[in-house]
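Changelog-adjacent note: as of this version, every example in the card shows the full chain rather than a window. The one below runs 56 residues end to end.
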Amino acid sequence: MAAEIEKKYGISSRLIESGGGVFEVCVDGDLIFSKKELDRFPEHSEIFSMLDTKQS
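Full-length structure tokens:
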């Protein structure tokens, strides 16, 4: 997903290692997706849609 975000939006992302099955996506400090809250991983299109909204 990180490579696709960089290719599509020209922004780099980074993995912050954690434990307990946590997978969260933050943009400019704002949480836009939380696996812990939804109990599933995101589809790439979900994240792209959220990034599009955030950049508007």
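Structural remarks: The two ends are 21 Å apart (CA to CA).
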